[in-house]
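Journal club prep, notes for RB
We'll compare a predicted complex against what the paper describes. Inputs for the adenosine monophosphate case:
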Amino acid sequence: MANLFSVDEALTRILAGVTPLAHEMILLENVLGRILAQDIIAPVHVPPFANSSMDGYAVIASDIAGAGRENPVSLPVSMDIPAGKPLQAALRPGTVARIMTGAVVPDGADAVVPVEDTDTQWDTTSPEIPSEVAFFVSIQPGANIRPIGEDIQKGMNLLQAGMVLRPQEIGVLASLGLAEIPVVRRPKVAILSSGDELVAPGEPLQPGQIRDSNSYAIAALVETYGGVPVRIPTARDTIEDVRRRFHEALSHQPDVILSSAGVSVGAFDVVRTVMNELGEVNFWRVNIRPGKPLAFGHVAGIPFLGLPGNPVSAMVTFDGFVRPLLQKLGGRPDDTDTAAAILGESVRTDGRRTYFRVKLLQEDGRLVAYTTGTQSSGALSSMVLADGLLIVPENTTYSPAGSELQVRLLRRMSNW
Ligand code: AMP
Ligand code: MG
C-alpha cells in the first residue's frame, strides 16, 4: 500500500539531507545564470586610480577661481594625458593638463574642467595640444573626477555566495580582474521515460503510438533550473529494457535520476519491479492534482524521482518536487513568482491541492484568473495557454467566483 502524503510532507522528505553540490572554477565568460559558490572580497579598488569623467583639462581648482565668461582665466598646458597611459609626473602649479575621459588624474590636480567650458575644442583631426587655454568657468575641487575606489572599495563584499550571476555581476567580476569564478556545480539529471506507446519526434509513428513529449519538456525544465539534462532513450515496457535504461542512466553518474510514467498505483508497471531490484524506492500517493502518484527514493545512492506519465502531471510535479530539489542541490534561490488573483469563475476540486492552468486578466485594477479550458492532465495545450497555475489548497472542494487565491506565475522564461 502506497503512503498518502501532503504536498509539504512529500517535499520535506525529498529535501531531507540534501546539500548543495561542491563548487567548480569556470571561466568568466561562461558564468551567466550560474550560482556564485563563495563570497568575493574585492581584491582591488575599482576604479584603480582617480580618473577623469570628462574630456577636458585637469586643473588646480584654486588656479581658476573667479573665472567666468566675461573674465576668462588663461593658463599654459604643461601635459597631455590620454586614457590608458601611466602618469608621467605631477601637475605643475599654475599649469593645466589636457586629459581624456578615463585617463589618470595627475597628482596635484583636483578638478577637471570640461572642454566645452574653455576656448578650445576637442578636435581629433588636429591632435595638436594648445599651448594655452582660457577657462570660462571656475570649478569646485573634486569636480569631474572619479576617485579611486569610488565604485568598489578593496575589501568590499559586494558579491556573495548564493547569488545568481546576472550580466551586472559578470561586469563587476571582470572589473575586479577575476577570470575564473567559483560556482556551484550544475546538477546532472538523467531523464528516463518508459512506455511501449512512446516514439521520439522525427521517427515514424505507428498506429496506437504517441510522441514522447515528457523527456523533452522535463529536460527543458531541468535546464531552466540550472541542471544539466541527460535524456536516456525511451524504455520499452519490459523489465529487461527498463533495467538496461536505468543502468545506462547510472553510467552518466548523475546527481538525480528522473523518470516519468509507470508509477501509478495498481498499474502493471515494470518501473516498480526494477526499482525494488536496484534501489530503495517508495511509491507515494501525494495529495496533489494533477499528479497523485509519485515515486521517491535512491538508486545506487542517487536520489530518484518517478513522476507521473501524463504530461501536465509530470510538469506540475516537477515544479512541486524536482525544482526545489535542483535548487537546493544547485545552491539556487527560489525566485519563482506568485501573485494573488481573484477567481473569475467558480471551481470545484476533490479536496486535493489542485493546480488549475489559468489565464490572468487585469480587470478594474485586479488580477482575475480564468481556467484555460480543458484541465485534462494530458493536455499540454493548457500549459501553453496558461499565465499561471492557480493553487486551490487542500481540503477545499468549492471555490466561488470572487475568491482570492495564489497563482504560481509562468510568464517569464526563468519561471517557464
Ligand atoms: P503511465 O504512467 O505509463 O500509465 O502513463 C500515463 C499516461 O501518460 C499515458 O497516457 C501515457 O501514454 C502518457 N505518457 C507516459 N509517458 C509519456 C511521455 N514520455 N510523453 C508523453 N506522454 C506520456
Ligand atoms: Mg506507461
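Talking point for the session: The chain has four domains: 7-21+186-329, 23-47+150-184, 51-146, 338-415.
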